Amino acid sequence: MKEMIKNLITFLFIAFFVFALVLVVCELFSPGFVIYYLNLNLVILLMFLLAVLKIFVNYEKDI
Question: Exposed e or buried b for every residue in 35-60, given b needs 16+ CB within 10 A?
Answer without folding.
Answer: eeeeeeeebeeebeebeeeeeeeeee
